[in-house]
Design brief:
- This protein is an alpha/beta fold.
- About 35% of the residues lie in helices and about 20% in strands.
- It has 15 helices and 17 strands.
- The strands form four sheets. Strands 3-2-1-4-15-16-17 form a seven-stranded mixed β-sheet. A five-stranded parallel β-sheet has the order 10-11-12-13-14.
- Helix 6 packs parallel to helix 7 and helix 8 packs parallel to helix 9.
């Protein structure tokens, strides 16, 4: 432990605030190591040699060399840094959420996001996808983390969601004057306009296109949870995004919206509450991923049914409808062989609590190993980043975490992360 603290202090003082990799070699001595969750193989007494922010090699025994920094995790269980495929870093649901929309500037949201990004990294999530935030705020935060100005996970950012006028993703429930000012340029109607919105999001800097294929629980409108885009609009969005090298993921609850989006060639579904047998067949045909976001369903139901409900009447009705159904949905999808990537919709629930999703996935029928795979190798594949993240192998990013116990026996161990290294830098 003394060697761990000494090495960590050197790293933290000389570079963690900048988030840069070091010229010195880092030796991570792991008591137990799950280097590649795809195999499920746990090895003992291994050393990961980290150089220039990447894994250089994995060797037997506890190795160290003069001039290197030693991270002593001999009493720990080491695995790749976790990936959350669905977060909202620039805000968090609470009693003031509606007021925040009209009182916070883009700069405010970026600064708030910096705090939440740090919490997320310290919880063991070294990569996240932010699927819906004001463009300037989230793209500035993403770039600040890349430069090392801000401590946080690697961020893939969608920016503003592409949505229909008046639908989930548009501004709802304020005066007309306020809504016209706050409405993002990614709102569209008609196939050509939705092509324009998609292309503009790429122009603004989107790594991935997020759309709202159906109504949503937290939009302040009684517009239901069914399909909102027309089939032609969905096809136009997917076509435009793919031609510009971007995948498209869809917020979707209603089965009509899920299936229409997948038939249009969409890549993944967030939530998927009312999916059916046809949905599962389409997932398999497309090779698409489901991101169940069980924490979001659990959170909104608990708030809507509790004594301190801060949701509006429209939000409450939808939360009570959809929230309780999401666990059974994930169970059906898993039993049906749908590929699942880990995602929480954090920002609905509290930042830093992301690992609570693991226990819900296990409750839905996944084994602890399958839940870990969803947050590592599956999520990496979902984002076409398997050559960079998701496992610990030579040439891949030196992103890893450690816990004290065995998460393959008790997956809640991942809620108690003791060490975090991202890009070869010790942050915790």
């Amino acid at each position: 432990m003394k060697r761990l603290l000494a090495g960590a202090c050197v790293l933290a003082l000389t570079g963690a605030l900048g988030g840069v990799a070091y010229a010195e070699t880092v030796f991570v001595q792991a008591g137990r190591l799950l280097a590649d969750p795809a195999t499920g193989k746990v090895e003992t007494a291994k050393t990961l040699v980290l150089e220039n922010g990447k894994v250089a090699r994995v060797v037997d025994g506890y190795v160290a060399e003069p001039g290197g920094n030693v991270v002593d995790l001999k009493d720990g269980f080491v695995l790749p840094g976790l990936i959350d495929s669905h977060v909202h870093l620039t805000g968090q649901q609470g009693p003031t959420s509606r007021l925040d929309e009209v009182t916070q500037s883009s700069a405010d949201q970026a600064m708030i996001g910096a705090g939440y990004a740090r919490k997320t990294l310290m919880a063991g999530f070294t990569t996240v996808a932010d699927l819906g935030a004001e463009n300037q705020a989230i793209f500035a935060l993403r770039e600040g983390i890349k430069r090392g100005d801000v401590i946080g996970p690697r961020v893939l950012a969608a920016g503003s969601a592409v949505s229909i006028h008046g639908g989930h993703g548009d501004v709802n429930g304020f005066s007309d004057e306020v809504m016209h000012v706050l409405r993002p340029t990614s709102v569209c109607s008609g196939a050509d306009d939705c092509r324009r919105a998609t292309r503009e999001q790429v122009w603004h800097g989107a790594d991935i296109i997020k759309i709202t294929a159906t109504g949503g629980v937290l939009s302040n409108t009684a517009a239901g949870l069914s399909q909102q885009f027309s089939d032609d609009e969905l096809k136009a969005i997917v076509d435009a995004a793919h031609k510009m090298g971007r995948k498209v993921t869809a917020h979707a609850h209603g089965v009509d919206g899920i299936n229409s989006f997948l038939r249009a060639g969409g890549d993944s579904i967030e939530h998927g509450t009312y999916l059916d047998a046809e949905s599962m067949a389409l997932f398999k045909k497309n090779g698409g991923y489901l991101i169940p976001t069980l924490m979001a369903g659990d959170f909104v139901y608990r708030i809507a049914s509790g004594p301190n409900n801060f949701l509006t009447p429209a939000q409450t009705a939808k939360a009570l409808d959809a929230g309780p159904k999401m666990l059974a949905m994930a169970r059906r999808a898993h039993e049906g062989g749908v590929k699942i990537a880990f995602g929480t919709d954090t920002g609905v629930s509290a930042h830093g609590d992301n690992a609570g999703e693991f226990a819900l996935l296990v409750k839905a029928g996944l084994t602890p190993l399958e839940a870990i795979q969803a947050a590592t190798v599956n999520a990496a594949d979902h984002f076409s980043l398997s050559n960079e993240i998701g496992s610990l192998a030579p040439g891949k990013a030196a992103d890893l975490i450690a816990v004290k116990g065995d998460p393959l026996k008790d997956v809640t161990e991942l809620q108690r992360v003791t060490s975090v290294i991202k890009g070869g830098v010790v942050y915790k």
